[in-house]
Structures are given as structure tokens and as C-alpha cells.
Design brief:
The chain is mainly alpha-helical. The protein folds into 2 domains: 2-39; 44-178, no CATH class. Helices cover 37% and strands 8% of the residues. The chain contains 6 helices and 4 strands; from the N terminus they run E-E-H-H-E-E-H-H-H-H. The strands form 2 sheets. The chain has a two-stranded antiparallel ribbon with strand order 1-2. Strands 3-4 form a two-stranded antiparallel sheet. Strand 1 (2-3) and strand 2 (10-11) form a beta hairpin.
Length: 179
């Protein structure tokens, strides 16, 4: 039995480089990258608590799953157009979601209708300029026509996050073309 003197991982034989040390280095590198990414967000566009709570009063329930806020353990500040995809870190780009729905949505561009839980809605007008940067090629209608037929009636529990993102993008580009 071989024990690495640096990470104290046990192996049947001596291996160079040690897989345990490599895993530790990878975890540290990912954590450092995530920390840098968090600190790179625009500090001038930080959202105040009162702005989020003011926004929350317009939503009776979680717009994704429909749970009442009193039954939700934690309310997450979800960016409609994710910051990682070029969206602004401002209150106008937020929608409140329960924590499980926020994790399910991940970094997708999904705007939920606040009146009908689980149903997608077109992006608000002020977010349409960010759509070009976040999803290049969306404005070419051929991408939607060549893809599998899109059922615009799909809702949260039955649809995947990718399907709901496609519906949101489709509704948003159709809305933008009307203007």
C-alpha cells in the first residue's frame, strides 16, 4: 500500500503524479476561477435588498413551480438573462424563484409568466438588446423552423429547461420582429 505524503490518499502502487493531488489542485483551481468570476460582476449594478423585495411583491407564488412563498425554504434571485451570458446584474433582470427551480433553470434564458406558473413569456422589451449577445443566431428564424416542431404550450414540470428556453427565445424574437 502506498500513501501519498502530500494528500494522504491511499493507492495500491505508487503513481506519479498522484491522482489525489491532481484532484485537489483541480478543485482549488475551480474554486479560484469561481471566486474571480463572482468578483468580476459589475459592482455598480449590485441589487439592493429593498429592490428585490419590491420586485417580489408582484409575484404571489414561484413563477416556475407555483409554490406559495410561505412553503418555500429559500427565495433565490434569478437572473432572467444570466450574467454569465452577458445579462445585466440589475433589478430589472431579476425574477424570484424558489431555490430548487433556480437550480433547475441553471444558466438558461427563461422568463416565466408571473400570472401562470410554469408558462414561458416573451422577454420584456428592455432585455431584448441583451438577447443578441446572450444567444447569437437567435434572430435567424431558420433555426426555429429547421428544429423539431416547437410546442408553445409546454410548461414547467413536463418540459426540460432547454425546451422552455427555446420557447422563451421564440416568443421574444417573434415579439421583436413585430416592432
Amino acid at each position: 500500500m502506498y500513501r501519498c505524503p502530500d494528500c494522504y490518499s491511499d493507492f495500491l502502487m505508487r503513481v506519479e503524479p498522484c491522482p489525489g493531488c491532481i484532484d485537489q489542485a483541480n478543485r482549488k483551481a475551480r474554486a479560484k476561477k469561481a471566486k474571480e468570476r463572482r468578483h468580476s460582476y459589475d459592482p455598480n449594478g449590485q441589487i439592493e435588498d429593498w429592490e428585490f423585495w419590491d420586485l417580489l411583491r408582484w409575484y404571489r407564488t414561484c413563477p416556475c413551480c407555483g409554490k406559495n412563498w410561505s412553503a418555500v425554504e429559500m427565495i433565490a434571485r434569478d437572473h432572467i438573462v444570466p450574467v454569465s451570458r452577458g445579462g445585466p446584474n440589475e433589478a430589472k433582470n431579476l425574477q424570484p424563484l424558489c431555490q430548487p427551480c433556480n437550480l433547475w433553470k441553471s444558466d438558461r434564458i427563461i422568463y416565466f409568466d408571473r400570472h401562470f406558473a410554469g408558462r414561458c413569456a416573451p422577454l420584456p422589451e428592455y432585455l431584448l438588446p441583451y438577447l443578441r449577445a446572450a444567444a447569437p443566431g437567435v434572430h435567424e428564424q431558420t433555426t426555429f423552423l429547421e428544429a423539431a416542431p416547437l410546442d408553445l404550450r409546454l410548461r414547467y414540470p413536463e418540459a426540460t429547461a432547454r425546451q422552455l428556453e427555446e420557447i422563451t427565445l421564440h416568443l421574444s424574437t417573434a415579439q421583436e420582429l413585430d416592432y
